[in-house]
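Crash report, auto-generated. Payload:
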Amino acid sequence: MKETLTSISERIGVSPATISRIVNGKADKYRISKETVDKVMAEVNRCKYTPSLLARSLRTNKTSTIGLLLPSAANPFFSHIAESIIKDAYAKGYITITLDNMENEAVQRACLSIMISRKVDGIIAAPCGNDPTPFEEINRTTTPIVLVDRYFEESTLSHVTSNNYKGAFEATSFLIQNGHRHIACIQGDTQSMPNKRRVNGFLAALKESGEEHKAVVAGDAFSVQNGYLETKLILNMNPRPTAIFALSYTILLGVIKAVQDSGLHIPDDISVISFDENISLDYMTPPITRVSQPVEEMGKLASKLLFSSIENNTRKTNKLELVTTIKAGQSIRHI
Amino acid sequence: MKETLTSISERIGVSPATISRIVNGKADKYRISKETVDKVMAEVNRCKYTPSLLARSLRTNKTSTIGLLLPSAANPFFSHIAESIIKDAYAKGYITITLDNMENEAVQRACLSIMISRKVDGIIAAPCGNDPTPFEEINRTTTPIVLVDRYFEESTLSHVTSNNYKGAFEATSFLIQNGHRHIACIQGDTQSMPNKRRVNGFLAALKESGEEHKAVVAGDAFSVQNGYLETKLILNMNPRPTAIFALSYTILLGVIKAVQDSGLHIPDDISVISFDENISLDYMTPPITRVSQPVEEMGKLASKLLFSSIENNTRKTNKLELVTTIKAGQSIRHI
DNA sequence: TGAGACTGTGCAATCGTTTGTTCAAATTTA
DNA sequence: TAAATTTGAACAAACGATTGCACAGTCTCA
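Recovered output after restart:
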């Protein structure tokens, strides 16, 4: 029924040690005779023995497991990152345990603690909140951590993110080039670094343009509802901004809905640009111009950094910013 | 540095056994004195001891881990299921290891084998291919398995799916009610049960309507590309079908793109209805009418079945079909 | 022919928990 | 006061793998 080294050992009269060596491909190294190898392999295959990774991990102090901590596995942005990391890990012989911090720092601490007690070999996280302490402590004393997308200011933790500042700067410049001077920016979680950087990029582009301008920054969450409510308010302003910059896909959806509900049209009545790539943006009417982040590369680089840290047992701090690109739709009017 | 029961034991002079009992809240049951409990708890908190789940699992033969096997973690349909399962598992004190079968049966077998060697307590899978054997064997001998969305015909495995037949039947009836008689259905993976049932529902609705009709069934994959190519062919038919039924969100995206590229319009030139819920469908022009599946409930029920199987150590076969609902958009013309 | 080297394998400790059993001391009962 | 019971906690054996070390037998060489 449940096969172990010992059960096989008793059955074929070869010690567990020898079987272990053969199963792990160390037969040559330990000069085990071909006869023995054949006998063992025959039985191992016959009874479909699979070693207990639990026991192995306990002994070797290596679980071949990484922890992935995300704000929401259902968010398309994070689920793409997750898939790319899960696949990379699989290819390296690692499995991934995914936990959801639910945008809650207490849950997040609990998740980290679970990962530690599971002895993961490394952690990739898109943290919530702005307290790096638990992450830094774990990274320093226990397990390497790489942050992805979200990160902390002035921290020793490695991270991979996109160039949020530049992306927002370029998006805003694009609006300015199209004659927009009165622009509203609807932001997400105000604590998160990507959000801060995007807002800074937005403001800097307007300021540096030299043109006279009016900037509006509103909102406080990466959610459809936030996008909807803030847009409702923005559309009622007098004078009304000529363009809205939504700092995430979810916010954008709220923007679109509010514009539609107000009987207005994009881009005739108001221009729109968004952060985040999503395939459906090409299918909207009009297609939405957006700042596209290289999501898959972010995942791949994060796992690359993490595995390098695991395999060399180092803690070199790497802060990577990947370039964003503007994907043009038809949601911006030239005025 | 690395705290264990033994290290604490040596430091405070209380046996590992007693510490273990206290940490696990069994102090009362074993009548351990308040003094000892206090002393132990003080030290446990001071040095932030967390038990090794590896060692515990090895001893107790329970990992508090479930395996989640999906065709693609990035697919919004599956990522929603994943999130709902991950959260449920977390609430029950379980963690989830997610693996991606990449729609490949060899990879799928490898994933199952990994889960077994990791001694997961249960598995939730949306399998690819149509060979139930590995799943049935594992479910019978080793670890309970519940299938979600995808399942096998005539199998003893439990599954949770939506009422694909009825959903497709209703969608088709809806088209018929709107005067459509010549309808094309673009299917996904032809082996998968949900796809088969949807196609059957589609054909049955047309047949049972009693009207004279013309049915077209095309396609072979749940992908944007498949939707695009088949739509291109369909649009060139003479006479051209008046409606297209896309059997998934991804297929739908391909349909829309092909219609747009052909300079045609939904619903004036061709009506469209789709399977799968996705928030972006409400944001398209026109909003797309679709058969909405209760994704979150599917995840919740699957984990409910699995946990009941784990906790009672039973293998009762449950085959659940959840109702779908038609969410009306404006993508169907009345003719 | 005896010392050393090589071959092939087994022994036993270890990883960090949990848990059935044991046992001394304290307390109660007769 | 001796016997019986209760209290409180330690001992030691698992769980299933890995791995340093030991060792018996064979071979090589002087």
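Post-recovery validation: The radius of gyration of chain B is 26 Å.
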